[in-house]
Design brief:
It contains seven helices and ten strands. With 248 residues, it is an alpha/beta fold. It is globular. The mean pLDDT is 95.
Length: 248
């Protein structure tokens, strides 16, 4: 990744969160911004390859470490990490780690964390506050949804969203039903964590919802090899309609 600007923000419950802002090489007065929220058990690094594609298009990118992940592991000065072991043996192990971490870290507060980031990023001189798009995967994929009713957002892409209950069903459904712009869900048909069924429910709550389902059993960013071009095309379309600028 190109030279980054490291930002921090403090949450109401005492977490110090870290994020990384990158600007394209092209010289513009203002840049659209894509904000990335990663999946459980990973960090912002999982987005590097896709983020590079947006930078090439002249779009700024912001990659955060969610609470309890990466560098965002200190609450009131004390370490507070997710419960996770990369060498888990089964889906049941992963679900168990997720449940313990949810209780410990309070994942339901992540949408508020993302809203804090948006407010901070809107103060950046070169960011166009009217052209902000959210991209999330799994835990990040469901966490970006309630933000739609908290902050002005142009669009979103949710890859393999986690269950609505993680951030509150009512919060998710209210945000989607009131969102007037297009949104895009991506999942695999045989997702072991049922993200296809979740995506089906969520897209039906929207006025302008789209969904793309891939014929395999992948979950999260592993699907990018199959869907990257669809995501890029969707976001270029959204930005072109908003700005009349051709992102090619």
């Amino acid at each position: 990744m190109k030279k980054e600007k490291i930002l921090t923000v403090n949450t109401e419950d005492g977490f110090t969160l870290y994020g990384f802002l990158h600007y394209p090489d092209t010289k513009e007065e203002k840049y659209p911004l894509v904000i990335f929220a990663h999946q459980f058990g990973t960090t912002h690094v999982i987005w590097h390859e896709l983020a590079q594609e947006f930078l090439k298009l002249g779009i700024a990118v912001f990659l955060m470490d969610l609470r309890g992940h990466g560098l965002s592991i200190y609450q009131n000065g004390k370490e507070k990490k997710i419960v996770f072991n990369e060498k888990y043996e089964s889906i049941l192990d992963l679900i168990n780690f997720f449940k313990k971490s949810w209780e410990k870290i309070h994942f339901e507060r992540i949408p508020d964390d993302i809203a804090l980031w948006i407010n901070l990023l809107k103060k950046e001189e070169k960011i166009d506050k009217d052209e902000i798009i959210l991209v999330g995967s799994s835990l990040g994929g469901i966490s970006i949804i309630p933000v739609l009713s908290k902050e002005k957002v142009l669009s979103f892409v949710s890859i393999s969203p986690a269950p609505e209950i993680v951030v509150g069903k009512e919060n998710v459904y209210t945000a989607l039903s009131s969102f007037e712009n297009e949104g895009f869900f991506v999942a695999s048909y045989n997702d072991p964590l049922l993200s296809k069924e979740i995506s089906d429910r969520l897209v039906k709550k929207m006025r302008e919802g789209r969904a793309l389902f891939v014929t395999n059993k992948g979950h999260g960013v592993v699907l990018l090899v199959y869907v990257k071009e669809y995501i890029l095309t969707f976001i270029k379309k959204i930005l072109k309609e908003a700005t009349w600028k051709n992102f090619t």
